[in-house]
Amino acid sequence: MTQRVGVIRFPGTNCEFDTIDAVRALGGEAEILWHSDSSIKNVDAIVIPGGFAHGDYLRCGAIARFSPVMEAVSDFALAGGPVLGICNGFQVLTEAGLLPGALQKNAGMKFLCSMQQIEFVSTQNVVGKGSQVGDCLQIPINHFEGNYVCSPEILSRLETQEQIVFRYTDNPNGSIKDIAGICNEAGNVVGMMPHPERATSDLLGSNDGAALIQSFLSV
Predict the structure, then answer these.
(1) CA–CA dist 138, 206 (Å, integer)
(2) Which of 87, 95, 143, 145 is an active site residue?
(3) Beta-strand runs (E) in the chain
(4) Which entry of 35, 54, 143, 195 is annotated as an active-site residue?
């Protein structure tokens, strides 16, 4: 069972403490890992949280992928370690080549901040333990560049290899095939645009994100 979660902080990250609070509330331990560090300090799992890494001045995540810590994260992921990228973290994972495809500006060119319903498409991944295909969750989004795109070849592979983790039931941003989250072939790396750390209590409007984080902690 995962005990210690490293939460990567880049200049511009703004969801690291939400993530740490959620992990701790669900029984895990969490600590900040600075982007310029070359080590992940023997943590059991990695979360790349939301925000605006390096101001997103080039493409979202395009500068962050070159931070020293990302080499350690890549090695950790390739060795089977659990990695979760949320919102900006999803963007970083695609730019780093740990997940296929890319995130572009939302359809309609509008920033979106709202509760959305997403549906489990595959549970063979680090956030799917205890869930079933077809389960629907209420999880908030908070992004301007959450429109997932990929080539037809990649899309076919995602579908046949059950790498699509979540779909929006009412697509808010134009993502191809309503995709809200994907994983790598091994299922140990997941990227998702909705924020499960902001849905861990009914006081926040939904408790549905707790199951995803609990699954991540139990890997």
Answers:
(1) 6
(2) 87
(3) 4-9, 29-34, 45-48, 83-86, 102-104, 112-120, 136-143, 147-149, 164-168, 179-183, 189-192
(4) 195
Output the pLDDT for position 151: 98
Residue 138 contacts by C-beta under 8 Å, 6 or more apart in sequence? Answer: 115, 116, 117, 199, 205, 206, 208
Q: Is residue 195 flagged as an active site residue?
A: yes
The type of residue at 111 is F
- 73-91 pLDDT tens trace: 999 999 999 999 999 999 9
**Cβ–Cβ < 8 Å for 162, 150:** no
**Closest by Cα among 72, 124, 120, 118 to 98:** 72
> What domains can be seen in the chain, in order of their start residue?
4-217 (3.40.50.880)
Tokens of 139: 């999880």
87 is catalytic: yes
Q: Would you call 60 a catalytic residue per the annotation?
A: no
Residue stretches of the chain with pLDDT short of 50: none
Alpha helices in the chain (DSSP H): 16-25, 68-78, 88-95, 152-160, 209-217
Helices 209-217 and 16-25 meet at what angle, rounded to 10?
A: 80
